[in-house]
Amino acid sequence: MNKFIKSCIIAGAVCVLAGGGITAAAVAMGGTVMDVIPLRLKQWGLELGQIAEEDFWNNNDFSFDEMGEQTLDLSGQGSQIYSAAGIKSLKADISAGGVRIVEDSQGDEITIFCNKDESFYEIEENEGELLLQTHSKKVNVRNPKLLFTIHVPKDYKFTTVDIKVEPQRVVYKNEDSSVYFSADGLIADECNLDIKAGSAKIGKGNIDTLFINSEAGAVNYSGNVANQVSLNSEASAVKLQLDGKKEDFSYDVSASLGAVKLENQSIFVFDKTITQNPDAPKSMILDCEVSAVQITFKNPEL
Question: 202 pLDDT exceeds 90?
Fold first, then answer.
């Protein structure tokens, strides 16, 4: 069971639960997860409930090392395709390749680099709102993998960041169809991660309100959340490493079939809702269908 959770819940949970009725690739192409899960889900829940919680989580540290290119090697970032100051809102619709944010530039300008030509993307800017849409195409699908690098000044703060990761339905032969978003430092009043199929990783985050919707993906967030975390997860693995301590948050956890690990406390939630620490200054709302969620804190002594 541990091996199943670690290896398959991201890319093949639906396939396993449906007894092979669909494939993980179909989910990646935009299939709706919960529409295809049959009654066998309940039986699997009963079987899982018979497993000791410590055995379920033992040596089961979900790895995000292979979610996509997370290196900060900028030698292959390509040419500059955009530059502007005064951007307050960032929206990225990622249907091909990877988008990464690097906090390293000077001044107040945001610059974007891409290793492919302009037929692979669209960029629009309107009154401080920047929209990036990525595409794939039949030619030039081999290496290098489509990559966008967004350079932002140190401590740059966005009002809103909206990221959608959804692979396009058509995959060309020999194409690396994985899609991802990563950020090495991200500050925003509000951040929305909508992961249909793919992955998102944010390090050194400083977000007031974090919304995560993950249908069949992997999400890894590390950093501060000042107000609220809201997670809706269907068939995903989610890892949160937050600044502060467990007592800073109230917890409202519900699921049809899900497992949540809060520090050293394992919470198995099958068709019920659990509420903890309701008077805390911050809140965490977790709605997990077929998912595993791990939550740890960096400074539990504070």
Answer: yes
